[in-house]
Amino acid sequence: MSVALMKVNFFWFRRDLRLNDNTGLTQALADGLPVIPLFIFDENITSRLPLDDVRITFIYRQLKTINLELDIYKSSILLKKGTPDAIWHSLLAEYDINKVFANTDYEPYSIKRDRSIQSLLQQHASKLVLFNDHLIAAPGEVLKKDNKPYTVFTPFKNQWLLQMPELLTYVGNQALSTNNFHKFNNPLPSLNTLGFQESHLRVEPYKTENIAGYANARDNPEPDGTTRLGPHLRYGTVSIREIVETAKQTDPVFLNELIWREFFMHILSHFPHVEHESFQKKYNTMAWRNHQDEFALWCRGETGYPIVDAGMKQLNKTGYMHNRIRMITAGFLCKDLLIDWRWGETYFAEKLLDYELSSNNGNWQWASGTGCDAAPYFRVFNPATQQKRFDPQHLYIKKWIPDYSPSRYIKPIVDHKIARERAIATYKNHLLNL
Ligand code: FAD
To answer: Using CA atoms, how far apart are residues 114 and 108, in angstroms rounded to an integer?
Structure first.
């Protein structure tokens, strides 16, 4: 005789690591059955990362916080490590799962993963129910009049702003009061037991107090006047709706940046080829120089251009680089060194704590001129001019290259004037010979 399994719903945390204003969780708690909160360290992803990857440590610490918060509801997080397919197979043998609630992750890998879990659940008369939580507007919700996706930022932004009031539904923590969490006490396994190691790096807390002065301060790399929301929005430790609620009352320039984040996610979703190729396919056959030694110097921050080098050192040391400096270092790699943007994109993906496929890809393609609404190929940043404008007193440079002295600095690996002409000629010839 078979034993009746407990009938439950699951809430599957992914890039929404919080209890407050969590759309899918709110829906799960309102559905009636006891809800088991679950997180899976997905081995398809973690096996490609170092054991002490700071993003794993960050996720783990956040799960610990959530577990403490769940204590009030006499509940816990079920924490698993493995491939999602294998984990769901074993959970289906353990529980009678009515529904699995989750928030949509719009990246190509996640869409594929969710399709596979959906079909597995269906074989057991269960289902995966997905909600939009990561963005204000889900891909497909902001479209042109002909129902096609926007590929230019400004009209996208205008339409997004028009629709924002109806899309912005902040629910806060109303649903938590229903306390439909499954009651169980499950102490989290330690990071080491899970097979990981604590990182020596830390994700800094975000600074919403910087939103007020953002428009004036955002372009200065030192002191850095931005909000450091990147990793928090990436992993959903804060709700985007909560941030937009503040931004819409405070600073349109800041709101604009949040809309770029949505724009690039829509682009990735509507044009998934950008993950591996140029948005403008005509650039797929570009004759990049791809000089290995120059790439290594760029990665280490030894190009002889202090603003570029300081940026790469900041990235290598902290996992963060200020946006203005990201634009300068990316432009330098693609234009001055004529190295394939995908090399730089991969390097940033490895290092950035706020790494987000859509934003990283969109911005790299913007810098290389291969993307949608990208900088035209003949616009080449001059690192010396940029430095004079944004770091005139060398505050940023000296922070990351403490012994910096203009007269004794290492020799530039390329002469910018010559490199600029070479870049323009290479792009131009490429387009002429298509
Ligand atoms: P703030 O300036 O305080 O902005 C607040 C939030 O707005 C950011 O956290 C981010 O979510 C969003 N945002 C701001 N600028 C942009 C932008 N240009 N594009 C998309 N979203 C934006 N951002 C990422 O989140 N992940 C990445 O992997 C990433 N890679 C980048 C690669 C390059 C080459 C460049 C030029 C930019 C990249 N950006 C990326 C965008 C931007 O540099 C970072 O979002 C920002 O520096 C993060 O710091 P912050 O949170 O203090 O930003």
So the answer is: 10
Can you tell me which residue has the tokens 């129902």?
Answer: 147
Q: Which protein residue has the closest C-alpha to ligand 1 atom 9? A: 230
Q: Is 264 in the pocket of ligand 1 (CB under 6 A)?
A: yes
Burial of 387 (0-12, 13-18, 19+ CB in 10 A): buried
Q: Catalytic annotation on 343?
A: no
Judge residue 168's burial from the number of C-beta atoms within 10 Å of its C-beta, 0-12 exposed, 13-18 middle, 19 or more buried.
middle
Pairs from 241-244 (Cβ < 8 Å, separation ≥ 24): 241/21, 241/136, 241/168, 241/169, 241/170, 242/20, 242/21, 242/170, 243/208, 244/136, 244/164, 244/168
Q: Is 197 exposed, middle or buried (0-12, 13-18, 19+ CB in 10 A)?
A: middle
Tens of pLDDT along 167-220? 998 888 877 877 899 999 988 999 999 999 999 999 999 999 999 999 999 999
260 is catalytic: yes
Q: How far apart are CA 268 and CA 153, in angstroms?
A: 14
Ligand 1: which atom is nearest the Cα of residue 364? 34
Work out the angle between the directed axes of helices 306-318 and 383-390 (0-180°, nearest 10): 70
Concerning whether 9 is annotated as a catalytic residue, the answer is no
Token digits of residue 42? 């997905």
The neighbouring-strand residues paired with 79 are 39
Residue 227 CB partners (closer than 8 Å, separation 6+): 206, 207, 208, 210, 211, 214, 254
- Encoded tokens for 153: 């930022």
